[in-house]
Write a structure and sequence with these properties.
Blueprint (H helix, E strand, L loop, with lengths): L1 E7 L4 H12 L4 E7 L4 E6 L5 H10 L3 E4 L2 H5 L9 H28 L17 H18 L1 H12 L5 H28 L3 H7 L5 H25 L1 H8 L4 E6 L2 E6 L8 E4 L8 E6 L2 E4 L1 H4 L5 E3 L4 E2 L4 E2 L4 E7 L5 H14 L6 H27 L4 H14 L2 H22 L1 E3 L2 H7 L4 E5 H5 E12 L4 H12 L5 H13 L8 E7 L3 E6 L2 E6 L1 H6 L8 H9 L3 E7 L2 E12 L3 H10 L3 E5 L4 H8 L6 E3 L4 H13 L4 E5 L5 H6 L2 E4 L5 H6 L2 E3 L5 H36 L3 H4 L5 H20 L22 E4 L11 H12 E9 L4 H12 L4 E6 L4 E7 L3 H10 L3 E5 L1
Helix pairs in contact: 1-2, 1-13, 4-5, 4-9, 5-7, 5-9, 6-7, 7-8, 7-9, 7-14, 9-29, 10-15, 12-15, 13-14, 14-27, 14-29, 15-27, 15-29, 16-27, 18-19, 22-27, 27-29
């Protein structure tokens, strides 16, 4: 079982490493992962293991913890509680403000005269030196007391054997503070015995301002870090904020306003124009359009009418609805999205393991280095104050914080941005592994195609095709078969009026079709088996039937009184965005394999115009998992994209399983990544997010290691003898603070990562052109609507190409290439950096002209597709 805990008192990666070590020792704990960013811990433990055993382990590590109550969690409404990062920020602001106000007078009386500022008369002269020292001591004491959490946490973990960043701060600033107290005693002794020379020599050895400044600068850094951290959760917070705090509900026939937490299943909720949906539900009354872009990434509002589902956190258009609550609290779609993202943030990417190992020994090593620094300079004869100053600088400049934050901040920003775009990563591991994948397996139905049949051909053998479509509608509107839905949809899209005739004596013929009477005459609709049984001759039209089947279409044959009336063919059509998305994945160098249970002819017909590397047809559900396993045995990193129950084994087997939007619950549970919308372009988005986030983590880790490797030797004074270069403890504290701020700020750059590039070029109409033909006496072509003609002619006239471009390294390069291509007459181009491709659309595109435009801009075209 999996349980979550809140852990209090952690400040750096050494803290999280210590907690993980102690909790992992508890019998019954199988896996533990601590998130420094959110101060939370996820534990996979055996059933029956008491929370107390885990909490005791956290206490042994030097921290406090509490279990997250599932019951309380279930009642939570997204956005109801104050943001965790907001609370931390307020606390940091308060501490920083008070400490800074006290530091100003301390710095003035300690450093002012050295900077040419007028000294206060009360502190002038050797006779007042003790008064000066005591004043500095009192101001510093108050500052350190305000920031006592550094000392409590630092000393507590030090004595527990798990020193952390607070230990370094406590020892560094504490050493300066204690040394200052010792100097006060020396000054009191010297002045009491009239030894002015001794008093003069120690009068400038007070380090109170250093101790206070170190702590205040750390506070300043923590405040800036908290501000940046708050922004890392902004994507999720913006989703939470979309959920209203209260809603209007009909109770006992009256309209009452209730907090969201009080809405229960079955309540009738009123939704007014411009309001956000409170809980998931089903529309009972009214019609409107709902903006679902916050959850699905779909920018076009979706029309809603009675019987349609609506989701919490989506925005109503101009209509008024009454809907029944079907999911409340933590069961709403928005709550599940937030839970998924939080779970991903609680996991660790494999790339962070090196940083965790280093963090586990980092602080003890720094303590040893600081001790060696102090002893070495004492032995070299540079005196106690000099040696102490360098040892303090080593303690203060060392920054395990940056190591601990490098991974979680990037993951939080990356998964948050993904959530807003409708791409949900369940774990940090899937976020890292995805961009390494080289082989993508795709289910056909519902993934590449729309998952429902559309009529493509109406071929009449008796009378006009319009008459055949009317007849088919009369028959099929009573059927629940998927092909019947396609026929009904085609009739309704045609705009023809409701036929006057009606079907009677309707009978479904299992495995063959159906029969009914129209105007007293028996009519049949079904497959070849039904026609053979009813002795309807098909030999004359065998080539036509085989031709339709060869194109991946399913023929529906209609007959009456022993004669063939015509054929209506339907097929599952490719989604309008699938080809463009697959071309982008192909340009990334991915091998794309389509897995389908359809026969070879149907599979080949669907794949004919798609950039697929391989098509595997007639695949049983268990075989999908086998094909993926075989690819893994060949050393390939695999991705499976599917939406059905039969895809679940393959989704689990793949290195990364991606469940697409309209999928079943079991597919969603089996997958590592969930796409909110049934659009393959979101797979492209997922790859972009994965690559961008892992690149950001690598940058953060490089900075964290580079900073410590460079700064610690400087603080040790290694460059003092050859160059006279040392580091003041106050500057060391300043540098340490900004190393963490750099890591968090760098992670925030992920918010500017571009997604869904180029989709608008391929945003063609969803209309399916129907070929209507009469092959009997008086043969003629059937109708095509003006919209169908326009879309068909436009698609035939437009040429599309994808150019792979070498030499682009930044967005300025992208803009230059895009401008050069768009300046060509009749050309519309969209260029991206990752992958480095240009998607071009226009009439009669000249490959040479395109290449020349790119080369004139200073780049090279390596491939044209």
């Amino acid at each position: 079982m999996e349980k979550k805990y809140n852990v209090y008192g952690m400040t750096c990666s050494a803290c999280s490493a210590a907690v993980e070590r102690e909790v992992a020792k508890v019998p019954g704990v199988q896996e533990v992962s601590v998130n420094l960013l959110t101060n939370s811990m996820k534990v996979v433990q055996e059933e029956g293991l008491a929370d107390g055993a885990v909490l005791d382990a956290v206490v042994r590590a030097g921290y406090d913890a509490e279990s997250q109550s599932p019951a309380a969690k279930a009642q939570e409404v997204p956005g109801e509680e104050e943001n965790y990062f907001e609370k931390i920020l307020k606390e940091k602001e308060r501490n920083l403000l008070i400490s800074a106000l006290l530091l100003l007078p301390l710095m003035y009386i300690a450093m002012g005269p050295m900077m040419g500022l007028p000294a206060l008369k009360i502190f002038e002269g050797m006779e007042n030196i003790l008064l000066l020292a005591l004043t500095q001591f009192l101001l510093t004491t108050v500052i350190l007391f305000i920031n006592r959490h550094y000392y409590i946490s630092g000393m507590k973990t030090l004595f527990k054997g798990h020193p952390n960043m607070d230990s370094l701060i406590a020892i560094g600033s504490g050493a300066a503070y204690v040394y200052g107290i010792a100097v006060i005693y020396i000054l009191a002794y010297a002045l009491g015995h009239g030894d002015t020379a001794l008093a003069h020599s120690y009068g400038h050895e007070l380090y109170f301002e250093s101790a206070a400044t170190i702590v205040v600068l750390i506070d300043f850094g923590k405040w800036l870090e908290a501000r940046a951290k708050r922004r890392t959760s902004s994507a999720l917070q913006s989703l939470m904020d979309l959920t209203p705090k209260e809603a209007r509900v009909i109770r006992d026939g009256r309209e009452v306003t209730l907090p969201i937490a009080e809405i229960v299943l079955g309540d009738q909720v009123i939704l007014g124009p411009g309001e956000n949906v409170a809980v998931d539900g089903v529309v009972l009354e009214g019609n409107t359009s709902i903006d679902e872009s916050a959850l699905s990434g779909e920018s076009i509002p979706v029309e809603k009418s009675p019987g349609d589902k609506i989701m919490a956190a989506t925005t109503n258009g101009g209509g008024r609805l009454i809907y029944r609550a079907t999911e409340v609290g933590s069961d709403t779609t928005i709550a599940k999205i937030i839970a998924l993202v939080e779970d991903a943030n609680a996991t660790k990417a494999p790339i962070s393991k090196l940083a965790d190992r280093v963090a586990g020994v980092f602080v003890p090593v720094v303590l040893v280095i600081a001790s060696v620094t102090f002893i070495a300079w004492m032995l070299l004869g540079y005196g106690f104050p000099f040696a102490l100053r360098l040892a303090i600088a080593v303690l203060v400049i060392s920054c395990p914080c940056a190591l601990g934050l490098a991974t979680p901040v990037a993951i939080m920003v990356g998964t948050g941005k993904g959530a807003k775009a409708g791409v949900l990563f369940k774990s940090a591991e899937s976020l890292e592994v995805l961009h390494h994948a080289d082989t993508i397996f795709l289910d056909k139905t519902g993934t590449i195609t729309r998952g429902e049949p559309f009529v493509t051909d109406v071929i009449s053998l008796k009378g006009s095709p319009e008459e055949l479509l009317d007849l088919a509608y009369i028959l099929e509107k009573n059927s629940e078969h998927p092909l019947a839905e396609g026929v009904v949809r085609a009739f309704e899209d045609s705009g023809r009026g409701e036929p006057k005739e009606a079907a009677t004596d309707f009978q479904a013929l299992a495995g063959m079709g159906l029969s009914a009477k129209i105007s007293g005459v028996e009519v049949f609709a079904g497959n070849e088996k039904l026609m053979r049984e009813r002795k309807i001759p098909l030999e004359e039209h065998r080539a036509l039937l085989e031709g339709l089947t060869g194109e991946g279409k399913t023929p529906l044959i209609f007959a009456r009184e022993g004669e063939l009336l015509g054929i209506i063919a339907a097929k599952d059509v490719v989604k309008s965005s699938s080809q463009a998305a697959l071309e982008r994945l192909k340009a990334m160098g991915k091998e794309i394999i389509m897995l389908t249970g359809d026969n070879e002819a149907t599979a080949r017909a669907i794949a004919r115009d798609l950039p697929l590397s391989r098509v595997i047809a007639s695949v049983l559900p268990q075989d999908k998992e086998r094909y993926i396993r075989e690819a893994q045995d060949q050393g390939k990193k695999t991705v499976m994209v599917g939406d059905g129950i039969n895809d679940a084994p393959a989704l689990v087997r793949a290195d990364v399983g991606i469940a697409i939007g309209a999928g079943t619950d079991i597919a969603m549970e089996s997958a590592d990544v969930v796409l909110m919308k049934s659009d393959l372009y979101h797979v492209v988005d997922a790859f972009h997010l994965s690559k961008g986030t892992i690149r950001n983590i690598k940058q953060n880790l490089f900075w964290a290691f580079f900073y410590n490797v460079i700064c610690i030797p400087v603080a040790m004074g290694i460059f003092y003898l050859p160059f006279g270069l040392t580091l003041n403890p106050m500057m060391a504290a300043f540098a340490m603070s900004f190393s963490s701020i750099f890591v968090v700020t760098n992670a925030l750059r992920l918010n500017f990562l571009k997604l869904e590039e180029g989709r608008e070029i391929y945003d063609v109409t969803e209309t399916v052109e129907i070929h209507m033909e009469a092959l009997g006496e008086g043969a003629h072509r059937g109708y095509q609507s003006e919209e169908m003609k326009k879309d068909l002619n436009k698609e035939e006239a437009m040429d599309k190409k994808v150019l792979t471009i070498e030499g682009m390294s930044c967005n300025h390069c992208v803009n230059r290439v895009e401008t050069a291509l768009n300046e060509l007459e009749g050309v519309e181009a969209k260029v991206s950096l990752e992958p480095p491709v240009a998607e071009v659309q226009g009439e009669s595109l000249s490959e040479e002209a395109l290449k020349k435009a790119v080369e004139d801009a200073g780049y090279k075209v390596t491939h044209v597709a």
